[in-house]
Structure formats: C-alpha cells, structure tokens
Amino acid sequence: MSTGLPGRLVPSGVEGRGLIRACWTGTGAFTATAAAATVSPDPMAVPMAVVSLGLLAAGCAAMLWAYQRALGRSRYELIGVGGLYFLAGCAPRSVRLSMMAALACEAAVALAAASVRPFTAAAFGILVPVYALGLSGAWGARHGTFPPRPSDSTTSECGYPSRNGDDV
Predict the structure, then answer these.
(1) Is residue 107 assigned to a domain?
(2) Does some domain include residue 26?
(3) How far apart are CA 46 and CA 124, in angstroms?
(4) Is the pLDDT of residue 2 over 50?
(5) What is the 3-state secondary structure (H, E, C) of 67-120?
(6) Is residue 150 in some structural domain?
(7) Domain membership flag for residue 74
(8) What is the mean pLDDT of the chain?
(9) Residue span of the structural domain in which 57 resides
(10) Out of 18-27, 28-37, 137-146, 152-161, least confident range
(11) What total of structural domains would you count in the chain?
C-alpha cells in the first residue's frame, strides 16, 4: 500500500513528527500564499507579508530555542552547527531529507516569487527559509543524537582549567 505524499513528507516511526509536520504545514501555507501573491500582487500584499513575517518570527524563535537547548547538551555531547541546524549525522536519513526538502522548497518558492514579482510583497518571502532552518534546529536539539564529548583531564566538570597544578 502506498503511503502517499504526506507519508513521504512526514516519515513514520521517527521522533519529532510534530516538528516535521509543522515544517511542511508552514511550507505549504507559504507556497500557496506566494503563488497567490504572484498572480494577484496587490490584493495579496498584506497576506504575503503577514505569512512571511510570521514564519520568520516562528523560525527565529525555534532557532533561539534550539541554540539554548544545544548549549545545555554541549557540556556532554559534541554538537556542531551542521549537525544541529542541517541535521548532518544526527538524524535519520528520512528526517534529514524531509526537513532539508522543506528548506529547499521554501528557498525555491521564495526566489521564484521574488523574481516574478520584484518590488512587491513577494520579496518578503526571501525571509521564510529561516522557518525550516529553525524547525530543523529544534528537531536536532530535541531529538538528534550526537557523539559524547571526550573527557579531558585538564578541565574540571564546569569546564574551567583544573587546579591540580597542570599547566594548560
């Protein structure tokens, strides 16, 4: 039995399906709004700006949350920017492909809409890929698996140089 397009966009059996679903929901709303704003730029100017700026704000909030969560985890795990926001090496292949496909879709729609209707509200769409990137970071910070940080005898548990007389 075929899983259909929604099943492919939101892989089953993985953690964080709500974040993936939210990512694709925002991408779909933006795509529909951008298409309408490309066809009818004047009546769709305000909806395009509202959707674009709303997704930008949500993406920024998700990025900041992911960064804060990753800071806490980084005391014990090696977390890099590529792993956190681009899910490189920390997420199942299906999750990474889905989240990066949403990012690519948002970027492509934004560039196409802004190219067809420059100097209109379609230009706000350029800001939207922050949404998929922020939700990818949130997924990585919450569900990603990162390698443990190697123990270093020259630093204490708090990360400060040890007081045992060793020069660092």
Answers:
(1) yes
(2) yes
(3) 10
(4) no
(5) HHHHHHHCCCECCCHHHHHHCCCCCCHHHHHHHHHHHHHHHHHHHHHHHHCCCC
(6) no
(7) yes
(8) 89
(9) 15-143
(10) 152-161
(11) 1
